[in-house]
Amino acid sequence: MRRTLVTLFLTVVIVIFALTNGAVKLNDMNLNLMLNIRLPRVLMAFLVGAMLAQSGSLLQLLLRNPLADGFTTGISSAAALGAVTAIALGFNFFFIPFVSLFFAIVGLMIVFKVGSSDKSFHFTTIILAGIVLNIICSSFISFLKYYFDESIGTVVFWLMGGFYGVTYSKITILAFVTIVLFFLSYKSAYKLNILAFDDLTANSLGVNVKGMRKKFFVVAAMLTAVAVSFSGIIGFVGLIVPHIVRGIFGGDMKTNILYSTLFGANFLLFADTISRIIIPSGAELPVGVVTSFLGGLFFIFLLKYKLKRVWY
């Protein structure tokens, strides 16, 4: 209970910090700035962080691999390729998440096909196939940037991760996806815990391992794809946040899903606020630069000192 209260207090503090700090200082005359520009951005950063962290929590369990997240499985790059393709072809923003999701599902099917057979599921091969898919998708994105240079020139900055052109209609889509998939995962936490065992044990306990794994791979892909379609590729959120939560609260998936969602939202919101205020001139860093720096340092610490104590 104490940890829950601390987490909620931390959430309130970070939200207030994010609302009151930015490239432009607030005063009585620009309350409109906070309501129409800063508040939507805060909400989007909060939701995207929640989605990426929840996706990472699911993927690390499903693959039984502490290095699994949307990026290492290739889902992020496939989703980004879908978003860039939709932008290049002039799609309305409303359809971009659907195109992104389609590409993510196709990428997931390819990785899943390479990493599994009729009788077994090869976890290491899944990660390797995801890395290869990353390379392939990155090459296609580079081609699209070269071929459609004038129409998608801004996509280079977007791919580094950021929250630009945020509207309440976009937030509505993100909130709907986040809430629905959160409750779907949270409701299935008991069965997800059983998946932490080997497949034979899980099957003997009444869990359809193959069906559950496919179902929640799709859930993780949806979370990642929708997040990427609105914010670009933001690294390390889905990788390190589940580790932090597992180290504090343990490996129970009901706890892990809940607190990964909250911690991921707080982490990305804090990183986005830093990206807005770190340059004195008022320029903004892509938030992906900040998350990669903070996440990279923290993950080195995990690898060196704590990894064995925060995994199953």
From TrEMBL:
Instruction: Cite the entry's keywords alphabetically.
Output: Cell membrane, Membrane, Transmembrane, Transmembrane helix, Transport
Among InterPro entries, the record links this protein to: ABC_BtuC-like (IPR037294), ABC_transptr_permease_BtuC (IPR000522)
Pfam families (UniProt xref): FecCD (PF01032)
Transport keyword on record:
yes
* Gene Ontology cellular-component annotations: plasma membrane
Parts of the chain that traverse the membrane? 42-63, 70-89, 95-114, 126-148, 168-186, 216-245, 257-278, 285-303
Q: How does it sit in the membrane?
A: Multi-pass membrane protein
Protein name, please? Answer: Iron ABC transporter permease
Species, as recorded: Deferribacter autotrophicus
